[in-house]
Design brief:
The chain is 63% helix and 3% strand. The protein has eight helices and three strands, in the order αβββααααααα. Pfam families: Glyco_hydro_108, PG_binding_3.
């Protein structure tokens, strides 16, 4: 399974360099990092000049360690990779919410583990439910959970385009750029 360094490297290659697309509400980005995210991380320069290693550090800190996805990685690396990808693109709370919804839907009416609150944070209840899924369903359970997460992510992309036609500029890339990248 890929390390966080491998995941970041794949992400940086896919996101590319500086972009200032007129349909992107996030404004100018570099290596997929929005100006707001760069500023929150302490980078005050022009987005064109955001260093690659600064982008990598932001991804590692903000989208891996602070989110708790590193703790998910210890239990289910493919799930952690998917959460990282979704968290970067949609926000860590959205990715974690998808995980919690899917775990609740897969618990067979709480026979395998109790429902978990939708805190949208990686907390003890979420980690316990994930651990139970892996114990009860094994590798196949992780694969099914991965499919559920991808389905929720894909559905969200379509919803975003339906709600704001300018997002149609990005849907193809959002979907195509994620096929098998992180959990082959």
């Amino acid at each position: 399974m890929a390390s966080i360094d491998d995941l970041i490297e794949m992400l940086l290659r896919r996101e590319g360099g500086y972009i200032d697309h007129p349909d992107d509400r996030g404004g100018p980005t570099n290596f997929g990092i929005t100006q707001a995210t760069a500023r929150a991380a302490g980078f005050g320069g022009a987005m064109r000049e955001l260093p690659r290693n600064t982008a990598a550090d932001i991804y590692r800190k903000r989208y891996w360690h602070e989110t708790g996805f590193d703790r998910v990685n210890a239990l289910a690396p493919r799930i952690a990779a998917e959460l990282f990808d979704t968290g970067v693109n949609m926000g860590p709370a959205v990715a974690t919410g998808f995980l919690q919804r899917a775990l609740n839907a897969l618990n067979r009416r709480e026979r395998d583990w109790p429902d978990i609150p939708g805190s949208r944070r990686i907390d003890t209840a979420t980690l316990s439910a994930l651990k139970a899924l892996v114990a009860v369903r094994g590798k196949a359970g992780e694969t099914v959970l991965l499919r559920a997460l991808e389905a929720l992510q894909g559905a969200r992309y379509i919803e975003l385009a339906e709600a704001r036609p300018a997002n149609e500029s990005f849907v193809y890339g959002w979907l195509a750029g994620r096929i098998g990248d992180f959990h082959a």
